[in-house]
Each structure stands twice: as structure tokens, then as C-alpha cells.
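User:
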Amino acid sequence: MARNVVNIEEVSKAFDIKELLISVSLGVSEGDRIGIVGRNGSGKSTLMKVIAGTEAPDAGRVTKSNSARIGILSQVDLENPESTVGEVVLGDTAKHEWASEPNIREVFTGLFGSFDDHIFDRKFGQLSGGERRRVGLAKLLINELDLILLDEPTNHLDVEGVAWLANYLNNQKALAVTVVTHDRWFLDAVTNRTWEVVEGKVEEYDGGYSAFVLAKAERARQSSVMDARRNGLIRKELAWLRRGAPARTTKPKFRVDAANVLIAGEPEPRNQGELLKFALNRLGKTVYEAHHLNIKLGDNELIKDLYWNIGPGDRIGVVGINGAGKTTLIRTLVGEIQPTSGKLVTGVTVKPAFLTQHLDELDPTWRVLEAVEKIANRVELGGGRELSASQLCERLGFDRESQWTPVGDLSGGEKRRLQLTRLLMDSPNVLLLDEPTNDFDIETLTELEDLLDSYGGTLIVISHDRYFLERVCDRFVGLLGDKSVRDLPRGVDEYLELRQASMNQSVVAQKVKKSSSAAEERQLKKDKARLERQLEKANTRISELEIELEEASMKSEELFEITKNLELAHNLKNNLEEELLQIMLTLED
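Assistant: Predicted structure:
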């Protein structure tokens, strides 16, 4: 029988006048894999903190096993900025005591792409938000814990990093894991139980996200309390899951017969013929055509000799390694960056909308609904369907009451939702989304996917959220860092296979090139020292630009220039890290 790690009994917790947890009783045992879902602000992170003991309940009791070792990955960085990465992760342990530990090597290679002194010696205060997140993860995974509580662990991880983390956790059989995330692919890959936090209570379900969707659909069918709109969304997502969603059909976590009964009359998520007809009417036959296109960012050539045809109604997911040029490629399509050579043909009727990773500043005194209505009062979805500004706001998580909230009072995630709502309200016929799922809860993501199902235009999406990509896109392309854009007929699975093959070839090539010459080894060490100095300068520059970005938040011209310089700095850093990694592999061999 599995050992109990922690129990909470009749726990209640409120902030101000809002009750987040009301008389909740739950337990976590050795080897449990629990996903926590619910709307933003429902109390998911609070529940995690109560279990971890970092937040005291207002009422009730938290009981831990005497020997239980519990760690939490929160969304707040509390480490000393002057500490090195090595000190944060490994404390005062001497290098010779941990350098040969295979687990430490595996974790750092999986999260950072390499295992060398350059990573361990960097100051925590000089790291980006994503790098700090990886350091926090590394610390949890390396320590011998009984339970780890992960709050949005996949934020700042790319598709490859998410796949590695899921595989690593699945190999730690005795470790109990509790996770809050909007990444539904990760939930399905890792968890076998689900807790839904709703209206202060916690509903328990067996199985991961797919099982949770089935159980919700069954309850919705039997209950008259839930409205028809929500029931339809749940059935629609279940239908997509059962009809062969990539990476799920080989590992079902719900009862197939019950699922088939529920979706018997459910149509495909998208009427491809109707959408294509509508897209042709709006766009004609040409959207984007790239002929022998070369794209540079500064002096760095990212894309070489690209031939790419994007047609009306295409729904394309873009995946690739950091720094390969995904965002730069999209910015080139919309005209923000000019190609260095080649020809880019844009259809005369193309009306693009580009959701970037950066928040556009809005007048903080505007109300949410006012900010949307300044774009338009109604939006056409296609096939005679349209929504009012208020209805679109509701679909993307702004209820009637919150539509009157001043923009200045919104959180970062809410502002991003508002930015997306305004983009959709402008009726674009080409929609380009760069990491659109950041800060969205699962229910809002489901609503967004439903909206995109009826979107009668061309859709291009960059995202590390594999579930979202597979849900809304029909075609995939990959950027593997070799300056090409590759078609991926088998989707994300094919991309991960190509990346693994590329890494293996790189290691083999380095071994072939290995030289016994002492002079060449000395040169490699000099190059390593030079790159480390350049990388330190690049990190300092990034930190300076991030500070400037915050200070210039209300100055649009300065904001654009700083954002451009920050992207250049990040690309330079990625290139330096790749070069340094190759040298480290050569020296190691």
C-alpha cells in the first residue's frame, strides 16, 4: 500500500472577501500524479501552497508524514540574485561530490541543453524569467523529495523541453507530483488523477485530462444545472480527443465505449469545406508566397532560400528551437521585417492581425468593453455567424461584470486576453498568433479553440502548447536551426524525432572531429573563454534592456525600438550558447 505523504482536512481559505477553498479534504500518497484544473483565480495555486505549507489555512488542518520531503515550484522567484546557479541548485556541496552524478547531468542537459561550468557559474539575478524557471525546476528534480508541487512548470519551456520533463517525471515512479498547468498535453502525459477547483470546492476525477473531459461530459449529460453552451464545448473537445488526437490513441485513459456513445452525433470540430469556401471569398487564391527568401536579423542569417506557399484557409502550426527564427519569420510575413533577398508575394485582399508576445499598452482608464468596442461593435465569424463585442468578451473569459473593469486593473494574463479580443474584433482574414496560450486557463483555451474552429481565414500559430497546436492546426512546419523551414507531415512527433536525430549527428560529428593535438585543444579553451565573456556581456545587455522595457512601457516609439534590440540580444545569446555547447562537447570527448 502506498505511503501517505500529506492530508488536508476541512481546509478553508479566503482572500479579502473571496472564499477560494471551503471545507476541502484531500490526500496525496506516494507515486500519485495529480493535475489541478480550474479557471484563473479559482484557488488552484492557493491549494498547492496550503499543501506545501507555505500558506496557512484559515480553518482546518494540514497533516504531513513525519519523513515527508516536499518541494514547490511557485511563480515567484525568492532566491538571492547574487547567488550562482550552482549555489541555488546544489547549495554548498563540493563539485567533486556531484559532478559525476548521472541524475544531475540528465536534469541539466534536459533543461539547459548542456552540462558545464558556464551554467553553474552564472548569477541568478542575471537570468531571464524562463531561465530562472528552469533553475527552480532543476533544484526540485535533483533533490530527493517525496512530493513536488509544480505551478505552471511548462511556462518558458519549448515543445522539446515539455516532452523531456514529462518523460523524466514518468520515470520517477515513487515520486508524488501535483501540477497546476494549462498545458493539456502535459497533463495527459503525466497525471492519472484530476482535481477541479470550482466555487471553493474540489471535484475529484480518475485519470488525466482526457478522462476528466469524459467525466465532465457524462455529468453534463445527466445534469440540468449546466447550461447547453458549456455542454456543447465539452462534447466537442471529447469528440476531437476520441477521433485520433495525436499522441493519445495509443494510451487511452477513459472508457472508449462510453466516449463513443457521447460523441455519436457530434460533428467534426471544423467544417473544412465551408471554411475553405469562406476563406476563398475573403482572400482569393493567394495569401503569402515566398520565393527563394533569405531572412536576417542583424548579421544573423536565420532563414535561407525559403520557398513557401500559404493559401486561403490554411491552419499552420510552427515549432522550432529557440533562436531559429520563428517569430522573425512571422514578422517578415506581416511586413515588420524586410527579407534580405528573394521575393515575398502578399495577396491584395490580405488583412492580417498579429498577436505578439509583448503586451500593447492600452489606455488604463478604458473599460474592457470600451476597449473592444473602439475596434468594432460586431464581428463576423463566417457562415452567417457573428458576435457582438460583449459576446466575444464573454467567450474569452470576461463576464458581464468584468467587462466594466478598468484596463489598468487587469492582470497580465487578462490584458493578453483583451489584446486577442481586440484583434479578433477587427475581422482579420489572416491571423498570426505568437504564443497565444500564455496565462490562459483551460476553460478559456477551450473557448478560444471553439472560436478558431469557426474562423474562416488563414491561421498561423507559434506555440509550445502541443495540445493547442494539434487542436487548432492541420499542417505543421519546423525550424531546426539549419536555416530551413521543413514540412512536418506527422506533426510534432516528427519534429521531436528530427531534433533527436540532429543532436545525435552533432555529437557524432564532434567525435569525428576530435583532435589529439595539444595546440588545437588550447585554441578550443581560448575560444571557450572568449564565448563565456561574450555570453556574460549578452546577459548583462538583456538585463539592461528588460529594465528599459519596463521604464518605457508608456512610450510606444521607444518600446518598439527596445523590443527589437531585445530580440536581437536574445538571438545573439542563443547563437553564442550553441557555439559554446559544441566546444564543450569537443573538449569533453
